[in-house]
Write a structure and sequence with these properties.
Length: 297
C-alpha cells in the first residue's frame, strides 16, 4: 500500500494526468474525420453501447503512462469492460478514466468530446481532475485546495446573476406533463435573488456540461434525477467533480450528500442523481426543490 500522497506527489500526479490526456488527445485526432471502426459494448442502449477504435487506442495511451508512472495507484477505465479490476478498493487512490467522453459527438465530427482523467481517493473523494478537448485545444484541470485552470489561466467562480442555463440531455423531456420536476425546479430557482429566468440547453456529453459551468458568463446547472439503469458512471463524473470543487463550485448527489465516486456495488453513479453548479446557493436550492417534490421515476 502506498503512503498518502503529499503535495509534491499530487503535483506530479497532475502532470502525469495532463501528459496522458494530451497524448491521448493527439491519438484521438488521428481518427477524427475518418472512417470509424464502430463496436458494441453490450449495455443495451445505443448511446452507451457505442465504442470506436479511437476510444480503445486512447485508453491504451493513458493506461501505459499512468500505470507505468505510479503502479501502486489503482486504475478504472471505461473500456476495460464491466469493472474487471477491483484494485480501486484495495489501494488508497485510483485513476478514473474516460478515454473519450462524448463518443457520439466525436463520431459526428463535433467538438464536444473530451479525454477525462481523475485521481480519486479510496473513500470516493475526487482529488484532482484533467479534462482535455482535443478538437479545440482546451485543457481544464484542477487540484483540491489549489484551484482550477483553463490552459494556463486560473478559473474563478463568482456569484453570477442573470438567466440560469440548465443543461439537459435527450433523456430529459421538457413538456410539464412528462417532466414535472424540471418545471418545479425552474420555479424554485427563479425565486433566487438576482435570477431573471431559467432556460434549458441540450448538451449530451457530461464533461462538456461540467466544463460549461466554468466558462459561461451566466449561472449554469447540470443535474440528474435518480435512475435505476442507463445513466452516467464513475468515469463520467469524477474529473469534472474534482475540477468544479477545486474552483469553489458545488457538487453533490440530488439529496445533498457527497457523490460516491468509488461505489462498491457498481460503476453506475446515476442511482442517487447528482448536482453540479458554480453556486452553492443554486446547488442547495436544487437539492431543496428535489426533497420537497414527490418525485417518481
Amino acid at each position: 500500500m502506498i503512503p498518502i500522497l503529499d503535495e509534491k506527489a499530487l503535483t506530479n500526479c497532475l502532470y502525469a494526468a495532463q501528459a496522458a490526456a494530451l497524448r491521448a488527445g493527439n491519438r484521438i485526432m488521428t481518427f477524427f474525420g475518418g472512417s470509424l471502426d464502430r463496436m458494441n459494448k453490450g449495455y443495451g442502449n445505443d448511446k452507451s453501447d457505442l465504442v470506436t477504435k479511437a476510444d480503445q487506442e486512447a485508453q491504451k495511451v493513458i493506461e501505459k503512462i499512468l500505470v507505468e508512472y505510479h503502479p501502486s495507484i489503482g486504475f478504472l477505465a471505461e473500456e476495460n469492460g464491466f469493472d474487471l479490476s477491483q484494485d480501486r478498493f484495495e489501494k488508497p487512490y485510483f485513476w478514473s478514466v474516460d478515454p473519450i467522453d462524448g463518443t457520439h459527438a466525436f463520431a459526428q465530427q463535433q467538438n464536444g468530446f473530451a479525454v477525462s482523467i481523475a485521481l480519486v481517493a479510496q473513500n470516493g473523494d475526487p482529488i484532482l481532475g484533467v479534462c482535455y478537448f482535443p478538437a479545440t485545444g482546451k485543457l481544464f484541470y484542477g487540484i483540491r485546495n489549489r484551484g482550477t485552470w483553463l490552459n494556463e489561466s486560473p478559473v474563478s467562480l463568482s456569484n453570477l446573476r442573470g438567466d440560469i442555463k440548465i443543461l439537459i440531455s435527450e433523456a430529459e423531456t421538457i413538456p410539464r406533463e412528462r417532466n414535472a420536476f424540471f418545471h418545479h425546479l425552474c420555479d424554485t430557482l427563479s425565486d433566487i435573488n438576482g435570477i431573471n429566468k431559467t432556460k434549458p440547453e441540450m448538451v449530451t456529453a457530461p464533461v462538456q456540461k461540467g466544463c460549461m459551468i466554468l466558462t459561461e458568463t451566466t449561472p449554469v446547472l447540470y443535474y440528474g434525477v435518480p435512475r435505476g439503469e442507463l445513466g452516467v458512471s464513475l468515469w463520467d463524473l469524477s474529473a469534472i467533480a474534482a475540477i468544479i470543487l477545486a474552483a469553489g463550485g458545488y457538487v453533490s448527489d440530488i439529496f445533498g450528500n457527497p457523490l460516491d465516486l468509488n461505489r462498491k456495488k457498481s460503476t453506475f453513479i446515476h442511482h442517487k442523481g447528482f448536482v453540479f453548479t458554480g453556486s452553492k446557493e443554486m446547488g442547495n436550492a436544487t437539492v431543496s426543490a428535489f426533497k420537497k417534490f414527490n418525485y417518481k421515476a
